[in-house]
From TrEMBL, chain A:
The protein's name in its UniProt record: Putative exported protein
InterPro entries tied to this protein: Quino_amine_DH_bsu (IPR011044), TAT_signal (IPR006311), UCP028101 (IPR008311), WD40/YVTN_repeat-like_dom_sf (IPR015943)
Organism: Caenispirillum salinarum AK4
A UniProt-annotated Pfam family: DUF1513
Automatic annotation (TrEMBL), chain B:
Protein name as annotated: Imelysin-like domain-containing protein
Organism the protein comes from: Caenispirillum salinarum AK4
Origin organism lineage: Bacteria, Pseudomonadati, Pseudomonadota, Alphaproteobacteria, Rhodospirillales
Localisation per UniProt entry: Cell envelope
A cellular component annotation (GO) from this entry: cell envelope
A Pfam family recorded for this sequence: Peptidase_M75
Amino acid sequence: MPLSRRSLLTAGAVGAAGMMTAALPLRRLSAAEDRGLYLSANTGRDGGHRFSAFTADGTVVMDIAVPDRAHGCTLHPDGDTVAVFARRPGRFVVIASVAENRVLRTIDSVPGRHFYGHGTFSADGGLLYVTENAYDEEAAGIIGVYDATDGFRRIGEMNSGGIGPHDMRLMPDGRTLVVANGGIRTHPDMARVKLNLDTMDPSLTYLDASDGRVLEQARQPEALNLNSMRHLAVTPQGRVLCVQQWQGPADRTPPLVAMHERGADLSLLAAPDAVQGRMRNYCGSATVDPSGSIAAVSAPRGGLVTFWDLEAKGFLGSTDVADGCGVAPAPKGAGFVITSGAGGAWRWESGGAAALPAMPDDRRWDNHLTLRG
Amino acid sequence: MLRTFAAGVALLWAAPALAAAPDFPTETVLTDHIQPRHAALHQSADRLHEAAATLCAGPATADLEAVRAAYHDAMDAWAGVQHVTYGPIENFNRRFRLQFWPDPRNVVERELGALLREQPTDILAENGLTFASVAIQGLPMVERLTFGAEADALADGTDDGAYRCRLLEAVTANVAAIAENLETNWRETDDPWPAAFRDPAAADLVADDADLAGIVLTGLTTQLQSIRDQRLLPVMGDSAEDADPAKAESGLSGRSLRGIAASVEAMADGFDLMFAPALANAEPELADLMGRAFTQTRATAQGIDGPLGEAVTDPARRAEVEKLATQVRALQQLLATRVASALGLSLGFNSLDGD
């Protein structure tokens, strides 16, 4: 067995992990055909925090310094402006231009609020919605609303429908926000301590983007109240994938992946026992392919990326990626790109996985990877 | 150090395919390191609770000294397992419930003030603290009650003193209960963590022993980083004039450096069991270097006179604190780069993130 038997994603590791490649309708796409840009926060070997974009071969074409460790990002409908969110409990959102490779503006959180790390633009790009913590108030979960046409002035806020809103996406109808209310109360005075594990009530909440009305909430069975709902991916058909982090003891391994369609109950998806155990009760991020039929869900504590069939609502397979967390679909259904906190990025497709050849080795990629197709 | 890091990364990624993969004695690490150290934490926490109960049964100054000594022992035992950042400690906020720290806004002191004003009794009941604020649950509250300016109130027989005593009993009972749970979990046959250490290849939690070794190594580097970034640098500031003694961990009891020394000693013990044999095969010179690095770092921590908060403002002793910070940094870098690459292990970044 090679020395770095665990370290890296290889074609061999894909096979060893039991990937059912034949079941995956993935097409091949050469790096030259892939015009996508992949965007992610990262931390350099020098300890500097950045937000960067790389091409399909791993060439870094955008690289800006950000004030501290960042988390998720969201692209403006103009395809160039990107909002980069501070990692919880951070207090900045950096607005940047990908093409110009520069910071346009930095938004600070208002007094009594900090950011959770995610947000989304409205369909017309006029508004930016950001998940925020009103840490000294009872109604803790807040969606801050910023006017992108007026210097990102904060023009209002609405309740998120729960405690600890984390990831948030705009639904394909362009009018509905879907929020993962993780259910965990935190306070910046208390570092990253989770303050209310006894009363956790995580929910997937749909809000009317125009007025914040709660349109629908989906919850897991009560026995899974310690299963914090954290990250989302939305298919073009409006299916929502929600991935969880279990806060309870390790001798239970509850399902960590849920799928939801408006008006229906949550479908909880579990991997086979051996894989479920290795996910270490912790999902890092989720994404879906452009057709909306295949999802990739990372489990960085287990050093795994798992794949799921959203039509059949079943587990497809997994691949080993040490500290692999960022996942994004390659354009045109040509697999997924995966980044690692240990450094490096790979394209995974039906024939196996390959490292992006031009990817520099001087940085650790943070939680999330976003495709600009 | 930058060049070392680059070399380490390059080596890791080159993945020399011909070398035999090392085996890691994970079961020995469980039985000879993790289990006895958690047993020691449990025992010292029980003794702390007994000492508190004795003090409160019949207030006497001598008994307060006994509680203080028991607190030091419990903190030493806690320092002895802090590098075990994985496993049962991750459940139910146990780490922060045992020690809510750092506490730059003095939450512990503020919450104690509120408790003394309102004197709630629900938290004094058995398990009454389990779901209370983490700031009042653990060892920092014990320190505040027994080393704070008004510690003598514990033995003064007033109503205020009586409440302080009952609170001390409840908090030490809570610490003992958490420590007992940790010890029990690490001994249970069906808990996934001890199971993974007994037989990593068969465990659901990890893929193999190298996978588990990466988790153990990440625990060491995380603790070393915490020692430098949280326990040393904020207290040191940029100069003796810029130093901030109030930021010292366990400043009231003046045991910051003692805790660091105990933690480094425990990490050296864990390293010797888990990694030293494989490293001696793979890179004997690096194995020797690691042995020296642990020994010297511990000696530096033990050799600094007086509390950390005083040492950083005294030019002579400050140089030794700076040396300690440098050695801790070097130790962390050696583990994260050269040891990791020599043994084909990887460390967590996103896996530690918690988001």
